[in-house]
């Protein structure tokens, strides 16, 4: 048990040390990102100095609008390039599937179609024969035997309720009660 306790204590100590290292690494990464962001902003966005006169302010606004338009054009161009490359990637992946011989199965829909309609769709105008599948079936006559008739007659209790013994009296009692 002492060995187990020592092993678990060592394991917990190692875990805590790793967690402390991870926390310090994360903090370093965040500080580096912040410094990188500040450098980028200082390089690409010079500090704004507002002029005092109205005409200079208008000129500054025109310059800012021109920059915004140029950035918008660049953004649009990059979006179009991205769409083109995505389309090319899809086409190339489809060609790759075709070359490999592995095809994606399209989702199939269930279509209700009679045999005649199916033959007409497959053969076109050549199909003139009407397929009646029930026409070639044998006609089978059902013979009513006396036993079946008796069973049918006895089975329907509504028809012969008065014929059963004892029921007639009960029926009269029921009618008298109403």
Automatic annotation (TrEMBL):
Task: Return one GO MF term.
Answer: actin binding
Which parts of the chain are coiled coil? 14-102
List the Pfam families hit by this protein, alphabetically.
Troponin (PF00992)
Q: Which SUPFAM superfamilies match?
A: Troponin coil-coiled subunits
Please provide the record's keywords in A-Z order. Acetylation, Actin-binding, Coiled coil, Muscle protein
Q: Name one GO biological process term.
A: skeletal muscle contraction
Give the CC-aspect GO terms: troponin complex
Family membership? Belongs to the troponin I family.
Quaternary state and interactors: Binds to actin and tropomyosin.
Summary of the function given for this chain in its UniProt record: Troponin I is the inhibitory subunit of troponin, the thin filament regulatory complex which confers calcium-sensitivity to striated muscle actomyosin ATPase activity.
Q: What is this protein called in UniProt? A: Troponin I, fast skeletal muscle
């Amino acid at each position: 048990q002492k060995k187990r306790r020592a092993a678990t204590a060592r394991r917990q100590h190692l875990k805590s040390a790793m967690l402390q290292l991870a926390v310090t690494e994360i903090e370093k990464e965040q500080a580096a990102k912040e410094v990188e962001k500040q450098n980028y902003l200082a390089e690409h966005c010079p500090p704004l100095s507002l002029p005092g006169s109205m005409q200079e302010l208008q000129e500054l606004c025109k310059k800012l609008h021109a920059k915004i338009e140029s950035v918008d054009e660049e953004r649009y161009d990059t979006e179009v390039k991205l769409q083109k490359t995505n389309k090319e990637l899809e086409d190339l992946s489809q060609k790759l599937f075709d070359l490999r011989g592995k095809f994606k199965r399209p989702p199939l829909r269930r279509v209700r179609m009679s045999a005649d309609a199916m033959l007409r769709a497959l053969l076109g105008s050549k199909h003139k024969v009407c397929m009646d599948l029930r026409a070639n079936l044998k006609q089978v006559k059902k013979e009513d035997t006396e036993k079946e008739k008796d069973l049918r007659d006895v089975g329907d209790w509504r028809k012969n309720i008065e014929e059963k013994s004892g029921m007639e009296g009960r029926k009269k009692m029921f009618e008298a009660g109403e």
